[in-house]
């Protein structure tokens, strides 16, 4: 891992903002950058956030500054477009998050005591956010949960909101019972109903699975990323075993690949 260069953060941010302004200049800028708008850039913003998470998952610390820089560019890009439209600029974005952090941490920046339990901290945090939502005229319990979030993340946030007002199962056992019920409904939809009903029932099952993760205090996104990584690793071992014999997966069959999968699984567990 490289050591920090101790560059002047303010100067580098100002340089980045200036570069973005030049890229968006209507006469001398980059045609692609000039053509973009908030909607066209939003998918890149989400993609860059996922690439930051991927670098962290892989502990690729040498890549992380670049990935965080790519994510920062998204903020600067949106801020530049807003500045051109006379809406706001990068300074407003920075001021907004600074003000929010100070407001949400009165035990650090105010006169409240820091001597609180983690549970009390959470309750205070939620009370502060409730005040913020009231200021935005968000009256419903689920108001303000962004539609653009990944579906799994949004499911957890919706469930957490509902749980705050008592709409929640008592514990994991109750959620497991609901999973059995939803699984039966999915099977029924597969056997007797159309594609739309099948998709709906599958969505219901995924939603309850997310709720189970919440009750078990498991991050479902992280759990699925780990499962994806495990599948990639073990299937790679299957391919490597076949390649050692000059073959590819399409030259094999399910029974053989299952056997090789089990071998890869056993080899992993032997090294744990």
Automatic annotation (TrEMBL):
GO terms for molecular function: ATP diphosphatase activity. Its EC number is 3.6.1.8. The keyword Lipid metabolism does not apply. It comes from the Bacteria. Belongs to the nucleoside triphosphate pyrophosphohydrolase family. Pfam families: MazG. It comes from Paracoccus haematequi. This is Nucleoside triphosphate pyrophosphohydrolase. InterPro entries: MazG-like_dom, NTP-PPase_MazG-like_C, NTP-PPase_MazG-like_N, NTP_PyrPHydrolase_MazG. It is an enzyme of class 3 (hydrolase).
């Amino acid at each position: 891992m490289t050591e920090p260069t101790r560059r002047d953060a303010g100067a580098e941010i100002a340089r980045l903002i200036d570069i973005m302004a030049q890229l968006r200049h209507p006469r001398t800028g980059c045609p692609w950058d000039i053509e973009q708008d908030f909607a066209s850039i939003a998918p890149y913003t989400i993609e860059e956030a996922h690439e930051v998470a991927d670098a962290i998952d892989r502990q690729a610390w040498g890549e992380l500054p670049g990935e965080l820089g790519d994510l920062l560019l998204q903020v600067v890009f949106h801020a530049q477009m807003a500045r051109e439209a006379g809406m706001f600029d990068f300074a407003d974005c920075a001021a907004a998050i600074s003000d929010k952090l100070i407001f949400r941490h009165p035990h650090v920046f105010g006169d409240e005591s820091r001597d609180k339990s983690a549970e009390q901290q959470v309750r205070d945090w939620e009370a502060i956010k409730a005040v913020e939502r009231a200021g935005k005229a968000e009256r419903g319990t689920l108001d303000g949960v962004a539609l653009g979030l990944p579906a799994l993340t949004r499911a957890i946030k919706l469930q957490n909101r509902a749980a705050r007002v008592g709409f929640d199962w008592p514990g994991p056992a109750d959620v497991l019972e609901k999973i059995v019920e939803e699984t039966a409904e999915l099977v029924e939809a597969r056997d007797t109903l159309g594609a739309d009903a099948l998709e709906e029932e599958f969505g219901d099952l995924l939603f309850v699975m997310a709720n189970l993760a919440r009750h078990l205090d498991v991050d479902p996104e992280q759990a699925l990323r780990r499962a994806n990584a495990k599948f990639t690793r073990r299937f790679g071992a299957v391919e490597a075993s076949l390649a050692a014999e000059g073959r590819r997966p399409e030259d094999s069959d399910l029974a053989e690949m299952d056997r090789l999968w089990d071998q890869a699984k056993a080899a992993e567990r032997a090294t744990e």
